[in-house]
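Researcher: I've got a protein sequence and the SMILES for magnesium ion. Could you write out the 3D structure of the bound complex as structure tokens? I'd like something to compare against our soaking experiments later this week.
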Amino acid sequence: MSGSCRLSNYDIFLIDLDGVVWRGREPLKENVLAIRKLIELKKEVFFVTNNSTRSRSVYSILLKNLGIDVSENNIITSGYASVLWLSRRRPNSLTYILGEEGLAEEATKMGLRLATRSEALSGLVDAVIVGLDRNLTYSKLNAAYKAITDGALFIASNKDPTFPLERGSRAPGAGAIVAALEASLGREPDFVAGKPNPWMVKIALGERGSANAVIIGDRLETDILMANRAGIDSILVLTGVTRREDVEKAREDMRPTCILSNLKEGLA
Ligand SMILES: [Mg+2]
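Model: Sure. Here is the predicted complex with magnesium ion in place.
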């Protein structure tokens, strides 16, 4: 592992939310202060999250409440990444959402049409997008299963097995729901939009090069693996789910450029 963790070396920042900006409802103060400083310094800051339950507009309000002023265009959720991919492939798709309000809002904004459960059951649906749904029921799972069996595209927002809550506890993530569908369908999704797929990096950077960009996150198997797949420097911050000793045990492609206890350290 080599490279410097000095934040001033970079101009473009792709920053994870859960485990970096907050943990559950609890803001991570040192990281928040450092991010505010980056914005003050006119660095370009994007937020990149696998969490699809909230829309980009809701995230921009939550960030503003912490004094982090970014446009919703600089916030990329796995929900937004899913609907963008689908709308480029099949615009105006009739789409069954197995997920929460934030995912449905992004789909509608992108011009996708939302399918009802009975449409999903009657073979009319073009695509199914799966995100975290904390009101999951067997009948929703069945509607998604039936639609995909009848030929709908199977799109997963992400495959995170868990997501972090306050005080180090965790809850089942979207990956648990995707796994239930994979088990019944006997196959993998047609597309997984979220990390570690570099698709969200592509959305953020567009045609620009990545030489002066860095990805900051707390998870080796999503944030850091995505960075390595995209060929971008990465900083692992130890405010989330990963401990320093996990890095030594990790596969080569999951090792970060460098490690910080918190982002404030990177400003020194
Ligand atoms: Mg995270």
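Model: Residues 16, 18-20, 217-219, 240 surround magnesium ion (CB under 6 Å). The chain has two domains: 7-50+195-267, 79-192.
Researcher: Great, I'll pass this along to the crystallography team.
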